[in-house]
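A further point concerns the way the authors explain their paired sequence and structure data. Since the whole study asks how a given chain folds, the encoding of that fold should be made plain. A single example would do more here than another paragraph of explanation. An entry of this sort, consisting of the sequence and the corresponding backbone structure tokens, reads as follows:

_____
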Amino acid sequence: MSEDTPHRRLLIDCARLHCRWPVDGAGADLVACGDMVQPGSSYCERHHARAHVPPPWRTVSVGGVVRRVNGGAVNQSGRASVSN
């Protein structure tokens, strides 16, 4: 895996303010992005967005049972129905 990032550095050399998204290498030779992190994250803005992608479904609770719904609704019988 390789990315065009001007601030690349070994993971072991990253300070708290450096993005630790792995871009190359393995083990002791792991190279991280190295850009400035987004506040409250271990990653820069670009890699934070990649790491925190919401799932393509949503969950609903029907009678205390959590069900996964792909863009549809849950009808009274508790079955998922997809609306077009």
